[in-house]
Structure formats: structure tokens, C-alpha cells
Specification:
Rossmann fold; 14 helices; 3 domains; six-stranded parallel beta sheet; binds L-homoserine; Dihydrodipicolinate Reductase, domain 2; alpha/beta; five-stranded antiparallel beta sheet
Amino acid sequence: MKTAVLGHGTVGSGVCEILLDRKKDVSIAAGKEIELGPVLDIRDFDNIPYSDRFTKDFSAVLADPEVGIVAEAMGGIEPAFSYLKAALESGKSVVTSNKELVAEKGAELLSIARAHNANFLFEASVGGGIPLMRPLYSAMSAAGITEMAGILNGTTNYILTKMFSFGADYSDALADAQKLGYAERDPSADVLGWDACRKIAILSSLVWKKTLRPDEIPTEGITKITVKDVSAAEKCGFSIKLLARAKRLENGKIFAKVSPALVKTGSPLSTVSDVYNAVLVRAETTGEVLFYGRGAGKMPTASAVVSDIIECAKAKDNIENVYWENGAQSVFAGKDSVPEKYFIRTEGDVDHVLFGLEKLCENVFMTKPLTESEFSVLKEKINEHGSLLSKIPLFE
Ligand code: HSE
């Protein structure tokens, strides 16, 4: 069976290399011979060993009866969506690393895949090289998952680690992450939290089977975090991580949020550094389960794409558990549905007893659990006496 690869960038070229260099292992795992088929890219690649496989014409890929699987690593919504829709409609299975596409169009592509008894898999879209989706939709499918909290963006975790452990300059750390192939083409998707937002939307939809739209999730990146926040947090026994969280509430709705968050020093998420990602899953039967590994980079991500190629080649039918509904009604519970404790830094004469705050250090306090709206009221009161410098939710 041939696999076509769409897009020969960082991830796509890694997929080609694995399919060629590890052809034997891949074929044994799939139970049939898996071959690299046509590679689609608008650019020319003349000086590589498989340059004869390149094409600029997607209709040729679609018309090739030997291509049973299409692996997409182009990124963006179009033309990726149209290509993958057409591939699924022609009965080819599709795998992708494109989180933007899965977060926006996942429900639609999954339903097209079902209608044509094909598979649409996207292990590489979240957590890079960590085997994450398959354990969630398969091994943990009956575990009763109630909550997930993840460090889901390698670039920002790399930047935070370099800035705060080694005193690196923000822009140097970002340039490094770009050089190493971790960052998005437009790194604002990383540093503003959108990439982590898309990823938690995918995990939530996959686990709870209803579309959670990225545009509903309150999202804040790392751009406002200062060295003063980090050293105040450290002094009080915490680290700051960009966390993407989702929680199923008793009414069936989902609370989700992406923001810098405080985690206790020494807790599993606090020790995740550099480009590593981790997802802490809480479930009724298993308790806490932690997934950890490289969240970005060419070969880890390509390895996850290839694992989906193997899964598609093995599957006799559509994999039923990889599915979520495109419900007309939103599943997002609303920003005020879960009160949280906040770590705050202030300036001026703030009477913490009057405001019900626990004092941690000089000008650093912890609030009692508050909703976003309740916090806004507190903020106004604090600003009448001094000023609120930063506010970071506590992950417990
Ligand atoms: N830009 C992403 C990250 C790539 O840094 O995690 C992997 O999805």
C-alpha cells in the first residue's frame, strides 16, 4: 500500500524519511508493505534521493489507485481541507499533523471518513511524539475522564525554561525555538496561546465526543509574564507554566481555559522543561495518568504521523471511537462556571484581611476561589487602594 505525503516541510520530510529508512519496521507493524508514494509540494526538491516522487498536482495523487493513505503536513485550512475531503470521499484514509485543521474541521472530516468507511487520524496534532490520542480514545475510553491539564506548546515551554532557568532574552529564546523547528510559521500562535488552545479543543472533543470550538476557550499566552512574576512564584514554592485545561462539569458542559498557571514546585507538571510536553489526565477509574515526551520537532512529530499510517493500514473498518459530534449547541460551560484561586502581585497599600486574601510574601497574595467576574470586582477594589500587577490562576 502506498502513502502519499502532502507538504515536504519539517514534518512532511520527516515522514518521508521514516517511510524510507524504516520501511521494514513500518511494514511489519502494519502487517503489509507500506511504501512512500507521491509527495506533493509546490516547491522543487531536485537534490534528494526521492526527488522522482514529487508532484505539484493533487489530482494525480487522488487518481492513483495504489495510494491508500494520504498523510497531510501542509498546515493551514486551505487547500488542506479540500484535499483531505476529496481523499476521504474517494475512500482513502487520511492522517494529519495539522491541528488548526483538526480543531476547526475535525467533526466534518470525521463524519466524511465514517460515511466512506475510511479513517481520519491525527495523533501528531497534539503532543508531538507522545503517544497520546490512541491511549485516550482506546485504553482510557471507559475510564471516565473528568479533567485534563497539559503543557501543550513546546515553543513557549522552551522559551519559559530558557528565560527563567538561564536568564535568556525572550527574543533569543524564540529565535532558538524557530531555528530548531519547534515554532509555528507565525510564532504569535505559540506565544499568544492559540496553538495550545487548538490542542486542548481537539483533546476535549476527542475525549468527551462533542465539538469544543477553539474560539470559545478563554486564551492568554505568555507575553505578559515577567521575571518578577516568576521569582515571586518561586519564592512561594510554585512554577509558572502555560497550561491548557479542560474539565467536564456535572451538567455535561466543559470548562476550558489556556493561560499561564501556577503549579507546585516538584509536582509532575512543574518539572516539564524545554520542548517537552506533558498532559495530566484525571479519570474516575484510573486516578491521575501522566503523558510526557517531546511535543514538537521534526522526527517526534513525524513518528506520530507514521504511527497513524500504521493504524490506518491495519484497520479493517472505520475506527468507531475516533469521533465527535458537530453539535449545534455549544458545550462550553462559560468563563464563570469554575471558581479558581488566583496568585496576585500588587503594589501599594492593599489590606489583605479586608479583601479576604492569604498573604504569601510581601505584596504577593492568594485569593479564595473566585469566578472571573468575582475577580473583576476584587480587582476594582484593589485598584482603589493600590494596583494589581499580575494575576495567575492556581492549578490544583
Ligand atoms: N509550534 C508547536 C509547538 C509545534 O511549539 O508545540 C508542535 O505542535
